[in-house]
Amino acid sequence: MVRGEPKARRIIATMPTLEPLSVELVEEFKTVRLRALEDTPTAFGSTYAKESGLSHSDWLKRVDSWNGSRAVCYIAMDEGMPCGIIAGYFDKVDPRRVDVASMWVAPTQRRTGLGTMLMEAVERWAHNLGASELRLMVTSNNSTAKRFYERCGFTFTGKIEPYRNDPALLEYEMLKYPGNSPHPAVIAPAFDELERNAIYRVIRARRDVRRGFVPKPLPDALLNRLLTAAHDAPSVGLMQPSRFIVIRSFEVRRRIHAVFQQANRQALAGYQGARHDQYADLKLEGILEAPQNLCIVCDAQSEQGHGLGRQTMPQTAVYSTVCAVQNLWLAARAEGVGVGWVSILSPDALRSVLNIPAHIVPVAYLCLGYVDNFGNEPELERLGWERRSSLESVVFEETYTPGVKP
Ligand SMILES: Cc1cc2nc3c(=O)[nH]c(=O)nc-3n(C[C@H](O)[C@H](O)[C@H](O)COP(=O)(O)O)c2cc1C
Hints:
Elements: E1 17-20, H1 26-39, H2 48-52, H3 56-65, E2 71-78, E3 81-90, E4 97-105, H4 114-128, E5 133-139, H5 143-151, E6 155-162, E7 170-176, H6 193-205, H7 220-231, E8 242-247, H8 250-269, H9 273-281, E9 292-298, H10 316-334, E10 337-341, H11 347-354, E11 361-370, H12 379-382
Parallel strand pairs: 4-5
Antiparallel strand pairs: 1-2, 2-3, 3-4, 5-7, 6-7, 8-9, 9-11, 10-11
The structure holds flavin mononucleotide.
Flavin mononucleotide is lined by residues 207-208, 210, 284-285, 341-344, 378, 380.
């Protein structure tokens, strides 16, 4: 973070992803490494002067040697720009030891958790290959790095060496064993890099889809996977209150569409002027085009879960069903299936068409199917109806303090 910047700026819109070093990333590797050497000239064994003169083939050779079963390097990428780096390699003498090197995080990404993410990536790699300790050297003037490594669980061994690039400085050895971490000795493993990237990608690429449905029904097995994902959602007290009504019949969809048209006319009447005209032009459902519709309802009176968690917040039953909707929405995006949520419906009219009893709460009416395209941005944003807000505008520290910038 830049000194003097408001605290809220520490929250960044996207979390960088870590990419294992590869030939494709040679330019990013060179960029981030040279930036690191320039930014903190006494933090590394090498110098900017030495490395800025390296040729392209020198960098390629280095990519090769910082890879494989004995060495690893991760580059942190933020929207296509490298913003952090770490390397680890097995000690030539002690086969149980991995040396951590080249650790650097761009100033704009500091205090965001990226440093920890980089360190954990090397730690996981080392652990998976049977290493029992991590070692690094930190220069005597680098107190920020010392504190960071201590927070990561490294301790000073007492071994001190002169720092080769500056006789006025020393290098301290630090080690980390699984047992000397300030955190519990065992930390449950995360998913690997590719899997993690996939989930964030699905979250970002999910869209509400109302147009472009392809008239090809979803295979039963696929629909079943989506319903399973929904049914696997978290629920208050393990209540699992969601019930799923799969609608394929054109006649039923036609009746629901009429319910939508009625509600949409009323909604339109509530807008005036330019908003009215803009609303009239929006396409807000795909009920007839999508070969499958799905109504997800909540049995808020179900005894399953024995009321746990619902005594003070009974609405958590419905929240649980919303979690099921979101699971299905994300799974559908991963499967290349479009989902559009239609809430412009009278719940009573919906009950009447779908025969939903009075004690069951209609939560979501969804249009589901293969589509010819997923937009890159919300349709309402593309059409100028609304804009997405920034993350920093909605995250507060300690208490609810919208708009307060310390
Ligand atoms: C509870 C809920 C109800 C929604 N109802 C409608 C709706 O009736 N018609 C519609 O076109 N979109 C509806 N949407 C979709 C939102 O407009 C959409 O999620 C939002 O504009 C962001 O776009 P994105 O989902 O593509 O990121 C609904 C979304 C949610 C979460």
